[in-house]
Inverse folding.
């Protein structure tokens, strides 16, 4: 068994997730607070943040094994369904050591709503790291799906309230 030399720090593991707003809507930030991406670099990054596994050309991901929700946790997490074409879902997500994390910009072009949502949930009941015994499928994914549904429906309600 390997010895543990120091505590595991995940402090910088999620930095892109929290930076996604600066990538997706850089115009919200002063020029000195923006990343220095060229338009083509930003476009490429946005393309890959939106890509579903079924759209990948290399490598190929069979949709039965890798549904859209495999990489898009909010609203769809844990459900093997296709995300409708009118939903643009840009994100960076991950699962490690019992953490389930997603940082997303979700845009529904049919309903005319869009929002940012970032969440982390820790699903490690036995508190033992690196034993591959986590509750990501039973607690993490359902939580992310329900949180995404809640915020999505709130945005729909808010839009309808503002229209009246």
């Amino acid at each position: 068994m390997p010895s543990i030399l120091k505590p595991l720090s995940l402090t910088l593991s999620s930095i892109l997730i929290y930076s996604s707003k600066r990538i997706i809507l850089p115009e919200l930030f002063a020029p000195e607070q923006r990343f220095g991406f060229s338009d083509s670099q930003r476009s490429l990054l946005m393309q890959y943040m939106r890509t579903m596994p079924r759209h990948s050309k290399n490598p190929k991901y069979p949709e039965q094994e890798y549904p859209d929700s495999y990489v898009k946790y909010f609203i769809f997490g844990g459900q093997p369904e296709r995300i409708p074409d009118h939903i643009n879902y840009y994100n960076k997500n991950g699962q490690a050591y019992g953490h389930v994390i997603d940082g997303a910009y979700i845009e529904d072009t049919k309903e005319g709503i869009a929002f940012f949502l970032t969440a982390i949930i820790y699903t490690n009941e036995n508190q033992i790291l690196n034993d591959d015994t986590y509750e990501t499928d039973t607690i993490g994914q359902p939580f992310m799906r329900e949180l995404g549904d809640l915020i999505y429906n709130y945005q729909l309600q808010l839009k309808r309230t503002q229209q009246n």
Summary: The CA atoms of residues 32 and 96 lie 33 Å apart.
